[in-house]
Write a structure and sequence with these properties.
The chain is of the alpha+beta class and 514 residues long. It has eleven helices and 13 strands.
Length: 514
Amino acid sequence: MSTDQATHDRPEGTGGSGTKPRESSRRLGIQPFNVLRYFSWASFAVIALVFVASGSLTVYVVHCVHIETEEDEADSLAEAFVGALKPLGLDQTKWPQDEAARQVQGELPRMLDNFNVLEFHIFSPAGDSLACLGPEARDEYPPWAPGLKAAMDGAVKTRWEAENWWRFLFPDRSKRDIIETYVPVKEGGRIIAIAEVRRDLAKTLGRTRRSLPQLMLVAAAASLSVFLCLRVAIRRADRIMRQQRSEIERINKELEQRNKYLEAYDKRKDEFLSICSHDVRSPLMSIVAGCQVLLKGRKGPLNDVQREIIEHSVANAQAVIRLTEALLDLARIEAGQEALNLDHFDPVQVIRESLAAHQAQVESQGVAFDLQAPAHPVTLKADRLKILRVCNNLVSNAAKHSRHGVIRIRVETGNCTASGAGVLRIAVTDCGQGIKPEDMERLFDRFSTLSRRKRTRMEGTGLGLSITRALVELHGGTIEVASQEGKGATFTVTLPLVCEEQAPPASVLGKRVA
């Protein structure tokens, strides 16, 4: 391919100019995430929740504090009022009518007004009403039974008419903020009376309610400040993330274009290999045929020098033919165009044919074959010619790397019973130098350079093992290698096996599958 054509085929815009991130995102299935917007909504929800929770907690604490404070003040007021009423007695029906009693009765309303007391009720230790003072005493307000009982047991009990604490935040304007406390009055370690103190908290609660909005305003200002600071940081992070997302989208688009570019070149490469292999193989076959005619003496006798030159030319031409055939086979397999002509045959017989074809080569190298095969007949359903080629590649590879030793070929079956099929294992072990651990990973790669590292004195194309693996995998099998440097290598092929008693009739043999 010319340079001008390669330049013309190169995808445009690979440098990132003209890329539209939003269109690229939709095309690549990327959903942009607006960090700033989601952060704003989430922060608003969190701040609102925290604001309501903190306000509710504050109101609840204020409510509890008022209850506790009221119990202490009511206890002190009860002691003071009971002490003032002792000269009159604690039973209102028995109060004297002298001048001193009238003076005490005149001071009591002022005391009640000073402490915002609406009603001061005295009960006996048994719970009987003895006296009731205050502006609302005539209302015959019924006593609170749980509070009275608690006071009879020696405890202080308080009830706020706005019993729900949240009413402090949302008061009911139709009701007064009245709080009542039941206090046991003791003298000499015994309870002499029980006092009920009902007071109006309007003034006290008014001051608290007026300060509450200021407190909430301070909390809101603090929350807003934190929100703004975080928003500045998130905005900067969002800008960086947008830039990074745009860069990723640009790179993805560039990679997509380059992948299409490489796919097109890979297709052209396959076409080139097919055309080149065919155009190279055809003239070489003619050259080999012409040389063989000369070697047979049909065009006249040859001297020794001429014969040596022609034999050398034939050997080189045949090597190139084998290379082109290997390239064609590999291209067909990778393109999925290789077909299997399935048949049932004895794989041991195929291995024997392969060994016989390489017998002269190994004998010249001082190497012998040792075949170990099962005694019972074995039937394999596969493409016979392709399995023969697999065996030839493995045996030829072992022969090239062995010197003065024994090449062991072991054939065995596994899990083959009368109830089902199993597997066939063919292991070929050479007596060569072995394979280095760093070379194991790329042993089956195309055009492997292991043979060019002086591993042996014989050169190869580097396609034999690659084609072998492709043919084995085409049959649904696997190939593995185990080697220890200096002790040879073992290549093991595993293929699905059909037992002899499971073999189908001859009418279905030779079926062609793609």
